[in-house]
Amino acid sequence: MPTCTVNGTELHYLDAGRGPSAVVLLHAFPLHAGMWSRQVEALSRAHRVIAFDYPGLGRSGPPREPTTMPLLAEALRGLLAHLRVERAGVAGLSMGGYLALEVWRKLPGAVRGLALCDTKAGADTPEGAAGREAFAASALEHGLRWVADQMVPKLLRPEPDAAAVHEVRELIAGGTPAGVAAAQRGMARRPDSTATLATITVPTLVVVGAQDGLTSPAEAQKLLAGIPGARLATIPGAGHLPNIENPGPFTEALLAWAAALPA
Ligand code: MLT
Fold this sequence. Notes:
There is one protein chain. The protein has helices at about 35-45, 70-85, 95-105, 125-140, 145-155, 160-175, 175-190, 195, 215-225, 240-245, 245-260; strands spanning about 5, 10-15, 20-25, 50, 90-95, 110-115, 205-210, 230-235. It is α/β, with parallel strands linked by helices and about 260 residues long. The protein has a single domain, classed as Rossmann fold. Strands 1-2-4-3-5-6-7-8 form an eight-stranded mixed β-sheet, sandwiched between helices. Helix 5 (about 145-155) crosses helix 6. The longest helix has 17 residues, at about 125-140. The two termini are about 25 Å apart. The site of D-malate has 7 residues, from loops.
């Protein structure tokens, strides 16, 4: 994957496929763009597909401050300018969904459609934000193995496949404790996006794993109710990462969404 420096941070990105339309894939915490490998392969047959690692996760350079959603939206703006992409469908999963909503607020002209996967509109409660700060401190103290021990049971369905556990642990191991801490601190600062939902005027797909315990199907229903004309895909046999746990129907839903986007 090549790199591009935006606002002093080296971003590691992928740019696959050559279709007339572009799709951006925004990854979950505490993973990296490699979580989209199956979707990149499928989408890039008909679309240009772009994804990048957030600072300190995957192979991007170290974070210089909390990885806030405005900072990431600026990073995406710089990356799209570097790649000469003016408009794209924007799909984000969980933290990637928080970022997708920020991208809609900051760069609406660059968004052809939204796919909001296993994510939610609300901000953290004070307790939730405090929990993220404690997690950040522990990640810096105990390292990525501790992060994986904490996160994998939350990210996957109950009694997950061993292969999915292995894959997610490897994705987490691709980051750094500093990247994990910065992402937690950045998510704690994210705004409540509930009022943003009614402003969305592009085709929007909401996706949720039927067994998602982090951002439940009830959260997906709130997105669906708030976004004019949004459609829902519920992925059976999957928790918070349906793109990994049940990639067939997840990828089909994303392909159908991408194929129907306006130019
Ligand atoms: C994610 O999957 O990106 C995170 O679990 C989101 C969060 O911690 O709110």
